[in-house]
Write a structure and sequence with these properties.
This is Alpha/beta hydrolase. The protein is about 35% helix and about 15% strand. By secondary structure, the chain is of the alpha/beta class. The protein has a 9-stranded mixed β-sheet with strand order 1-9-8-7-6-4-5-3-2. Helix 9 links the parallel strand 8 and strand 9. The mean pLDDT is about 95.
């Protein structure tokens, strides 16, 4: 039984990641720093961050994209060449990030194709419901629907990896918690890339890393919380899985977390890893020196370690 996560640190910062950091500070940070997440602002964000060109986002050469629908839920299968022939046998269920308010399988297609490539597993990427029409727990319900669908097609739970980044990491945690609570078998593994697990923003890193994270400045994150949480309690574990009951965490699968050392929500990963490990679950936390939010998005620094 484990009582502490295995912690692995990677560094120094690569030249590629340093260049990404500079580019984000020059372009992305000024754009989002003063964004207002009104109804109009949400719609604008969804258009700006997913332009028509998103349909042409590059993927691993030879990757097949198959569009599908699970009841009301649009989704796509992303099948890298190395994953062909594994359909119906094993799968990655991927849940994209985007602060709970934007993003789609299209915006994350590059990353998901690379994950499919290194794992040799087909990946089902879901287009869960977003504001301003839908708010949590709608994304969790959509993720649970997709998980039930994979089980219904005959893929064993032990052959399913649930993975997600940022808000998608939080939804991935909620999916596993709700599956266990509902009596469903847990997936074979859980991969969390910079998961947003605490919508109360109580981690020390929200203060200590303020200004060090070029991708998610503190101001926009706090405004996002106001939109996503509304009048509800942000420490409710059905919104912030960091605070989930220990009895549910005891049934978790082996879990891998990746995070950059200067991320605003670094402590979400640290504390989530501590809680899962304390429940007796094999847990590994990988910390990448000064890498921007969601390490594998910006290069190959983290992707190989997902497969390991």
């Amino acid at each position: 039984m484990s009582d502490a996560p295995t912690v692995r640190e990677f560094g120094p910062l690569t030249r590629q990641a340093a260049g990404v950091d500079r580019a984000l500070r020059a372009t992305w940070s000024p754009l989002v720093d003063n964004w207002r997440f009104t109804r109009r602002g949400l719609r604008l964000a969804q258009r700006v961050f997913e332009p028509p060109a998103a349909a042409r986002i590059p993927v691993v050469r030879g990757t097949e994209i198959r569009h599908t629908r699970i009841e009301h839920l649009p989704a796509e299968w992303v099948i890298a060449p190395k994953a062909r022939g594994a359909e119906g046998q094993r799968a990655v269920l991927y849940i994209h990030g985007g602060g709970y308010v934007f993003g789609s399988p299209r915006t994350h297609r590059t990353l998901v194709s690379r994950i499919s490539h290194v794992t040799s597993m087909p990946a089902l990427s879901i287009d869960y419901r977003l504001p301003p029409e839908h708010f949590p727990p709608a994304p969790t319900h959509d993720a649970l629907l997709a998980y039930r669908h994979l089980l219904a097609t005959g893929i064993p739970a032990a052959s399913i990896v649930v993975a997600g980044d940022s808000a998608g990491g939080g939804i991935s945690l909620e999916l596993v918690l709700h599956a266990i609570e509902s009596g469903l078998p847990a997936p074979g593994a859980l991969v969390l890339l910079s998961p947003w697990a605490d919508l109360s923003l109580s981690g020390d890193s929200v203060t200590t890393n303020m200004g060090r994270d070029p991708f998610i400045p503190a101001g926009p994150v706090r405004r996002l919380v106001d939109v996503v949480v509304g009048p509800r309690d942000p420490t409710d574990w059905r919104l912030s899985p960091l605070f989930a009951p220990e009895e549910l965490l005891r049934s978790f699968p082996p879990t891998l977390l990746q995070v950059g050392s200067t991320e605003l929500i670094l402590d979400d990963s640290r504390r989530m890893a501590d809680r899962i490990a304390a429940a007796g679950v094999t847990t590994e936390l990988q910390v990448f020196d000064r890498h921007p939010h969601v390490v594998p998005v910006w290069g190959d620094a983290g992707v190989a370690h997902v497969a390991a």
